[in-house]
Each structure stands twice: as C-alpha cells, then as structure tokens.
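[[Local backbone shapes]]
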Amino acid sequence: MKYKTLDFSGDELKLLDQRKLPLEVEYYNCRTYLDIKFAISDMIVRGAPAIGATAAYGVYLVALEYRELEKEDFIKAVKKANEDLLSARPTAVNLYWAIKRMEGVIDKNKNSTTDELLRLLLEEANTIAEEDIITNRKIAAYGNEIVPEGAVILTHCNTGSLATVDYGTALGIIREAHYAGKHIKVFADETRPRLQGARLTAFELLEEGIPATLIPDSVAATLIRDGKIDLILVGADRIASNGDTANKIGTYMLSEIAKRFDVPFYVAAPVSTIDFDIMDGSEIVIEERSSEEVTHINGIRIAPEGIDVYNPAFDVTPAENISGIITEKGIAGKPYLESLAKFK
C-alpha cells in the first residue's frame, strides 16, 4: 500500500488517521505519550499489531518527556505513564506486550545513562516496527498454503497494512494469494458499527487491484449457506492458550455459520497476539465502546434519543470453531493448547 500506517522521525510519530479514510488521507502527529494514548483509544490507529508498534513509540516519547529527571524518578515516571497508556484499549494484547517489552529494556539497562536508555528505547521501538513487517510476510507465506486456486474468501473487519506496520495478517494472506496468481475473489463485510470493512478493507483491496465485493454484515450467512464462500480469514486481538480468539464483534457469529456449513475458518495473527498468561476466552476483557458509534454515523444521529445501546467492540470465538491459527512460526491446529505452546 502506498500510504504508511505509521512513520516515526524527528521524535514525532505520524499516524495515518483511519477515522477519516477513505474520504480523506490525513496524518495525525503524536509528540507526547498522551497523543499516543488518544490515537489508540479514539482508533486513529487500530489493529493489534499496529497498536503494539504505536505503543512502543509511546514509551519512547514518555521517556523523552521525563529525561531531565534523576534516574530513579525517571524510571518511576516512565512506568507510571506506561500504566496510563495501557488503559487506552483493554482487549488487544499487543498493547500490553509492546509496553512490557519496552520496559524490559529499562530493567536490563538500569545502570545506563538516561541518554543511553533513550537511544536503546528508540532502537527497540524501531525493532518492534521492523519485526512486524517481517512477521506479516511470514504469516502471508504460511497462509497462502491453505488458499486454494480460485478461492472465494470472506474476511471481516480490517487486517491489512492499516492494521499493522505493513502488509497485514489475514489480508496479508489474501494479498499473497493474489500476487501468486491464484485468481481469488474476496467478499468484505462492512463491519458495523465503525465500518472498518467498508472504509478500510475495501480501500486496501481496491488499491491492490484484488477482485472484491463489499457486503452488509447480514449477507455473509446467506453466502456461506449457498456455498459461495470457500474460505474465511480473520485476524485476532487476543488469543488464549487454548485457542479461544477475541476479534472484532461479529466474528463469533461467522464462525458458527462456517461450522454449520463446513467452511474452513482460519485466524491469522502474530505469536505476540497469543496471551499465554490466560487459559481460555473467559479471561479476555471485552472492551465496550461509546453508544454514539451505534446511534450516529459521521456525527449524524440515525437512532432515536434515549434508546439503550450495547456496543462491545469484540467477541470471543471458541477454539473448536477455528480450523487453524496462522502465525509467523507456522499454522497451529487442534488441540491448540499443545500446538500454540510450541510457539511460546
């Protein structure tokens, strides 16, 4: 994709503002960790891998902000700000993973000067971003192995370059299959309420010239029932040790229909999205978002005032509904408790 999801230079992180796509291409400039926190919570940047890389740069900006403090106070201030940054979005584990990885740099180098710590933190943030691109390419290569020639693929939400540093997870696999000349076709769910499929996935598919059709979320079941879908590919925001997977709301429903009609249902995600500290999906905190995401579109009210709204951002798909979990280390199969543990 010709647009960069994120770009760090001159102690400033530029994020492609995904709230405004596809109608406007604008960048949001982050100069402090509070800018980063807002960008994550308001979904200027979204997608677990992209959130992780963004958070890594957020930790560096925290350290930059407190560089004049005495070493002990500096470390305390950075870790306190990191706790605040962690609250930006509770479900995506990559946020936690990246911040803890950055804190590991501080813990290992406590005897270094503050300036040296800053250099090491920026180096680590850059490494996290660079690793994500390599990881996505590996996921795409493994995933391409399970895509049949001429496959019609259904995907949900956005899992492409916009959800990562570059290339994508589930959409990266689709991209790879297209480049391999497999003559695939894609159905993209609109993904209410924030329409990431309609606004972002459709945007990426058109940019790549991949044959694609946008559908209302409610059409997917009919297509699956009528035998018009060969494969379903989705991403993940957190995967439990047993394979239970939290992803964008509506994913669980698709998995149940896929199971009913025997359509392969695959999850694509980096190993960093696997939370080995939790056993199953019951331990995953599901973020609930503003009612206005449901009652309004682009600031225009579409629902009557006073109506109650339930707006969970994610749901959990049980491992039993998942045909395989595609990572940069290979494709895990059932039982996931055993297969995923090998990637730890």
